[in-house]
Write a structure and sequence with these properties.
The protein has 290 residues and is an alpha+beta fold. The chain folds into 3 domains: 19-144, Leucine-rich Repeat Variant (Alpha Horseshoe), CATH 1.25.10; 160-230, Beta Barrel (OB fold (Dihydrolipoamide Acetyltransferase, E2P)); 231-290. The chain has helices spanning 2-12, 18-41, 49-57, 62-77, 87-93, 99-109, 116-125, 131-143, 150-156, 232-245, 251-259, 266-287, and strands spanning 160-163, 168-172, 179-180, 185-190, 198-201, 206-211, 218-219, 224-230. The termini are far apart. The model is unreliable at 29-43 (pLDDT under 50).
């Protein structure tokens, strides 16, 4: 009986049988589809010149446009002299209705601090309604040695207060100490007999430093809801930019991080010390008679 049973099992799993083929092919297809999806959405995947031009012009698939912007930034950083052909499209994206495109375009323009068209565009973006766009413009302007964005760099070091966009009943979705991504939901506002609640989102990445109201409370339009502390990466980049263009007006904020801020690594403190030193040296030179 044992011998017959073994022969039956072997017959059922012969390599050429449809069942056996299905067992082996399906896992391979799953892995292949997963890899192709990852490869198509990975920003590190090199794009052809044709793809670059297409994705920068056609923004109907935002991920592809962001992919092209990331690739353009990398090419510019490497000193690729052929990237100039896409500069008009990059400037056009800086005027997009979508803040994510304006923000990323501002960052990319900082890779070429010899382009006067970029310089002019970045100065205009300092008045953008979206904080991340203004801040990326200020960071990029620092590469042009232009201090015009210094106030925005100072703002990057400060907590952000979230206010209620309208009156309603408050329902928190985050707690004090929670990490937040840009666009992360902090709270939801609802009004009786209104089936369209409004989400209150964080405009920056960071953490919830303080909840300024009670869960379930009725709040009015403009009332404080929460305070968001900036993420370490944001603080570090602002300090690096202020090292290049900061003046005495920024010292109070810089010195605060030089002493040490809870939740920030020693890397931030060291950068703040270097930035404060550079600002003080510039101040001394500007007051020294020639």
């Amino acid at each position: 009986m044992t011998s017959d049973s073994s022969r039956a099992r072997r017959a059922n799993f012969q390599p050429g049988t449809p069942r056996n083929t299905f067992i082996f092919v399906v896992p391979i297809l799953v892995v292949l589809v997963t890899f192709l999806f990852w490869y198509q959405t990975w920003f590190g995947r090199p794009l052809s010149d044709q793809e670059m031009g297409q994705y920068l012009s056609d923004t109907s698939v935002p991920h592809k446009t962001q992919h092209a912007l990331a690739q353009l930034s990398n090419r510019m950083a490497r000193g690729d002299a052929t990237t100039g052909r896409w500069y008009p499209q990059l400037i056009s994206l800086a005027g997009s209705k979508q803040p994510q495109f304006r923000s990323m375009a501002a960052w990319v323009m900082g890779q070429d601090n010899r382009c006067e068209a970029f310089h002019r565009t970045l100065l205009g973006l300092l008045d953008d309604p979206a904080p991340l766009v203004r801040w990326n413009a200020a960071l990029a302007l620092a590469r042009f040695s232009d201090p015009a964005g210094e106030q925005q760099l100072q703002a990057m070091l400060q907590p952000v207060r979230l206010d209620a966009p309208r009156a309603g009943r408050l329902e928190f979705r985050a707690r004090e100490g929670d990490s937040m991504q840009s666009g992360g939901i902090v709270a939801r506002l609802s009004v009786a007999n209104d089936g369209n609640p409004v989400d209150v989102v964080s405009p920056i990445a960071g953490s919830v430093a303080r909840l300024a109201a009670k869960d379930g409370a009725q709040v009015g339009a403009g009332d404080a809801i929460a305070v968001i502390s900036p993420a370490e990466t944001q603080v570090f980049e602002a300090l690096r930019a202020l090292l290049l263009v900061g003046h005495a007006a920024s010292l109070d904020e810089v010195d605060r991080f030089a002493v040490g801020v809870p939740g920030m690594s020693d890397r931030v403190r060291q950068q703040a010390l270097l930035t404060a030193q550079a600002i003080r040296q510039r101040a001394t030179k500007s007051t020294t008679p020639h």
